[in-house]
Amino acid sequence: MARHAMAAGSAPGWAAGVLAVVCLVFCFDVISCDSQLYGAVNKNVTFFTASSTPVKDILWKKRKDKIVEKEENFEEKVFQPFTDRIHLNSISGDLTIFNLTSSDEDEYEFESLSVKDSIKFVLMVLEPLPSPTLNCTLANETVRVQCRIPEPYSSHIDLIRYSWNCSSAQCKNGSESSEVCVNKKDALSRTIECVVSNPLFRNASSIVLDTCVPHGKAKEAPKLTRSPSNKLWKRQGLLLVTITADH
């Protein structure tokens, strides 16, 4: 049986949801595979059963806790904390959860007399990605740029991926690290962009590499000169201190 899942509420230009089969076996009628599903905080997510025929006696559970139950010829019964937050398609068995919170993250299971085996989904709830912060340092002839997710963001850091956009070879090679090194000679007047992404969101920040490289020679300290006429020390034409005294 083919099984599908979809999430709503992702950033513009990105897919509404991402489905990843996380079991390492083929899905046959006698084997129940878990489907990885991503949802966004405060948005909606729908679990699709992909049933080709109407289903009877529906039960959705979060782990061992009931979410909604619909027996044939009876009204559906919704359980806390999902009251007023779900919609059940009583024909297909599809379940939609509204206004997602981080506490909704868990394993979900669909059961029905019309389905030989239960269908399981693993839901992960993600928060929108903030703009990353960029810092750069110069060592010898190399400019090192570091890309960081600002604190206190902590929503599934392990799912965050990094990529870089710039004209240097280091960026073109597709570095996926949170930092990249660029030759100093390639840094003048050029911009480097760090892109952070997870299965639902994408954000980016950029920095002008020229700002990482100091320019010009250090200015020499002003010289002190002595005026022989009045025996005073002068600095750039300003009177500083008298070095003689009347006797």
From TrEMBL:
Signal in keyword set: yes
Signal sequence coordinates: 1-35
A cellular component annotation (GO) from this entry: cell surface
Presence of keyword Glycoprotein: yes
UniProt GO molecular function: signaling receptor binding
Domain of life: Eukaryota
Main location: membrane
Compartments (UniProt record): Membrane
UniProt keyword list: Glycoprotein, Membrane, Signal
InterPro entries: CD2/SLAM_rcpt, Ig-like_dom_sf, Ig-like_fold
Protein name in UniProt: Lymphocyte function-associated antigen 3
